[in-house]
Hints:
This protein is of the alpha+beta class. The protein is 26% helix and 25% strand.
Amino acid sequence: MSNNNESNKSIKREVMEWAFVLVFSIVITFIVKSNVFAMPMILESSMENTVFEGERIFEYKLNYLFKEPERGDIIILDKYEESKGIIHNTYTDAKETLDTMLGQGKKRYLIKRVVGIPGDLIDIKDGYLYVNGEKVEEDYIKEQGETHPGAFSLPIKVPENKVFVLGDNREVSLDSRDLGPIDFKQVKGKVLYRIWPIDKIGSLY
């Protein structure tokens, strides 16, 4: 009987140890995914022809820890709220993952290109972007031409601690034309590489 009890205790101890390792691994995974880097799948067409729906990218979340976003940066932003620290970011990311698995998720993260930084005067005329009165040559956009006007009237001067973002597929993109300038604290990370599909792996710059 004594041997059976010891055996049962040993099995329970092993199960508890494995459960702890599993929970610890999941927590560490979410901390890294929420605060260091992520490899999300593109779920929208607003950045064509730079990245396409179904492709995967590498997002580095520490890029703006000591520097500000620059014109031309491709970023991931949260359209609902600002960053509030490691614990909050991890909780938000875990909840977003669970809601998505349950079919209750709402699309909160967007991929966009920074076209204006603090102090820039942004305007769009006949489908062309103007920054500080200068027409910008954009060889990365899907199609040059008329774009939807959005809710915010242009021209607009980008306030301090904010950026103006646009999608490369201007016809369908939800961006600063509708959301207004994006606060630095809404910026989650910089997109550096495309990592899927295999034949298109490489830098996006």
